Task: structure prediction
Amino acid sequence: MNRETAHKVLRDSDHRHSRNIAADQPGSKEKLYAPKFLATYEAECRRKRDFIRKTAEIEQRLERLVEALRLIISDKPFHSVLLSEGLSTIPKLLAQRLQGKGAEPGATAPNGDSSPGRNETRQRADGICADVLDHLHDCPVKVKIFGLLRHVLPARQLEIARLMVAMDRVTFTYVKMLVALTPPGMLVDDFHPTMIATLTQDQYRVMEPEISALSAAFLSAFERGGLASLDLGAGSAYFNRLMDNSRVVRYLAHTFPGNFEEFHELSCGHAFS
Result:
């Protein structure tokens, strides 16, 4: 469903409560029972942790490469070697990293601005934050998902939309899990998680803060990961060019004998496997 269709569906349902809209769809009245809920929860937590770990590895590899380049570029005589070999132009993204001007974590958000309060001020379409429709513009979204989103406040709607896109999980079950594990202060007044899921209070008290912290860490990693991957690609390509040049290799082996093995590993791709 594209944004225009979603707007039409929501406009045409002004006189109906969100639960009634969701009820029009097969299976929308069914609760997410504990076995399926827990299986979904554990699988999604595992995927988030894996992504966070991989992003951290990319950032560590990038930092290792940047430090190696910073070391050799700080050697002024080496500048003449680079210039004479046509290697003096450093990729812009990499140059910014070397100057300590890399993008700040959280400075940008994928597919839209998620700055606090922005979704509160934009016009909403019958209970759905307009930013959510923008964010899901290119996604095949079932109508009953919007029925679920109406159970939470706009800021939470946008967070769930961002998670759906980033995790590639634009599914009813995933959204139902996230809505059920929404902090109480971000639920609408007439809704309780037990309406859509069978969880004990003890399970809720453990799972709600855990998924909240994990989701925040995942979204932060998602924002940083794309930039880090681009920088790593540019940096490794440039470093490989350096290490493919015989004059550069001789200079580095002579000037930085204690670091040359590290340079060799970086150029062979061992650090990026």
Q: What stands out?
A: Residues 13-27, 105-121 have pLDDT under 50 and may be disordered. The two ends are 39 Å apart (CA to CA). The first helix runs from residue 3 to 11. The chain is about 65% helix and 0% strand.
